[in-house]
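CORE FACILITY INTAKE
Project code: CF-77B
Contact: R.S. (postdoc)
Sample description: multi-component assembly, two entities in total
Requested service: structural model of the whole complex
Turnaround: standard
Below are the sequence entries exactly as provided by the requester. Do not edit them.
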Amino acid sequence: MSQAVNVVGLQEKLQALLVGKIEGNKLVLPAIPTTAAKTIEVLENSELDIGRVTQLLEGDPVLSLDVLRLVNSSAFAPKVPIESIARAVSMLGAKRLRTFLITSSARQIFVSRIPEVREIFSQLWTHSVGVAVASRQIAVHAGFEDKEAPYMAGLMHDIGKPIVGIHLLELEKSVSRWQQSKWIDPAAWLSIVEATHRAVGIAVAKKWKLSAQVCDAIEDCVEYDPGDRLSAANAVRFANALAKREGVCVGDVDMEQVNTVLMIGRSILGLEEEAVDGMSSALHEAVREFG
Amino acid sequence: MTTILTIDDARAVRMLVRKALKEMPFDIEEAEDGEKGLEKVGECTPDLILLDVTMPVMDGPAMLEKLRAQGDQTPVILLTAESGSAIIGPMLQRGGVCDYVIKPFKPEQLRAKVIEALQSQGAVPDLSAPAKPAPDRKKGNFQPAGKTFVDVLVVDDMENVAKKFKGMLPDHLSFNSCIDRQSSLSMCRDRVYRTIVIDTEIPDVDSVELYRDLRILQPTAAFVALVLRTTDKPESFVEEKGFDSFLVKPFNAAQIAEFLGAYFESLDVLQIDENVMKPAPFAGPAEGQEAFFKRLGQAAHDALDDAAAACYEDVIMDLDEIPASQKLQKMLVKLAERSEEVGLTLRVVANDEVDKLLKQLVETANIAVFPTLGEAQAAAK
């Protein structure tokens, strides 16, 4: 009994400390890795300089392999395998390459060596990829001008979660007087993450110079904005619910809530049922390939 | 007659509902709040209720609760500007609301939801009643989802390209064209295409990105890149970008014939009904005739193999609509050979001119020619 009270107290204390750090801008936020940051700079400052971009990417073997993996995936479906970075760069173009570099940078945030969170982070990443792909499909079906913003918003909508998660673990260690360093209940852990991640996610999106649409999508993933129907945030709201319906998510799902969000979203975004079926398939395909 | 009750405090909305459904065989009843709505339900026993959420006197949630408490299970579609899940959610979950339409709405969206709701309740109205023109199969078939099926879409900023393309297609193929990205996306949202031809040099348009977006909207279509003669290695371009094939501008009849062969051959060149084969008449420009007979010959060759595999002893080639020509003669020589190889007797339905043509050659002289299909079938028995 007393242990249960202590856990609840610990949860509240952790949450308060975390909120204090976020509000005081004392949380160290991750930066975009060097190669990706330099390449993005080149892409933003001039016409696509394939030679320069290729040179930068080739300096990072992991990133190079990821680029090749992307252009050889079913999303591009080349009839002959693409083996050179220069060809991959030319095929992607500046806009998609930038999206890829941010995707790649975001992915690293979801990777952890800590056993307690490794699996959850991996599932969160899978969920984010699924939401990103579905958001892009929504943008195409609903007639959005910009298709990359919904993708990016989908990818980043949970970016605060792993950051908060790691800080939470560190805080727990520092405040817990238990020598065994007992982890709080996973459900309580998720509940604190859920309550605090959005502010961190927005701060990361701003630091990475992502658009206001991305911040909006991070801020609220449930309630639609009927005044701006074709917004990236609305696409992410629908895609987030779709991913949950399809089981591509972390934690418990309130299926009634999910179905409500999907029904409202279908009308707001003007989506037909068969289009939604196509999105579900694309979501699962993306999860298999990139998750 | 199916009755629909619209409950909304805004008269303008009730009028819009009427207007949206006016061509459907429905009686439309109206009420301006939940209380009056309940009275109307008692009077007209509607098949479907379109219910607003925020209304004076009695709002949508309260009315729905009372309606269900009375044991009335009339299907309800929420028609509202409210999108908050905390308000809508309980109505969907506990009130048995079957669908949701946000205001302002498109008339076609409302119509589709109304029909879907009525059909799912088994209260299917006779939708053939309104005087809408029957689908013109020459212009396009109608898919089950209500979308028109079209054979070819050409996306090219130069209008002359589409004009020329259309002129080289057989008349029976349906055709659409557009000159920019937005129109192509819009058309692909509204229709189902069999083939989509995309110019790769539209100013200010990334054709590959456009291709990918259209592919999302049209997952079953074949995509053909339209490239310039100066394009370096178009084969590589097609392979890398994921297009199914390419055409080179300016294209000629032979290229179009190849395009037709690749995407329309089996469906359009030869109709097969058990052991009877009937070629479609050639409708394109004269330069395409050779390619047409090549495709026809291949399709007939395959059909002969299928007939043999199905244990038929004879096949009938109905050439009633095909005029005599050297190309036809040449094709029949090959088919006579193949028939013999697979153990089939080939009979032909044709006019005297074709008969004479066949008698000229040793390979086809023994083919039995009949003036009508009935006579050929009788002889086969």
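Facility notes:
- Chain A has two domains: 2-27+117-290, 33-104.
- The interface with chain B takes residues 76-80, 82, 87, 91, 93, 95-96, 137, 140-141, 143, 147, 222-224, 226, 256-257, 259-261, 263-264, 266-268, 270, 272, 274, 278, 282 of chain A (CB under 8 Å).
Invoice: internal transfer
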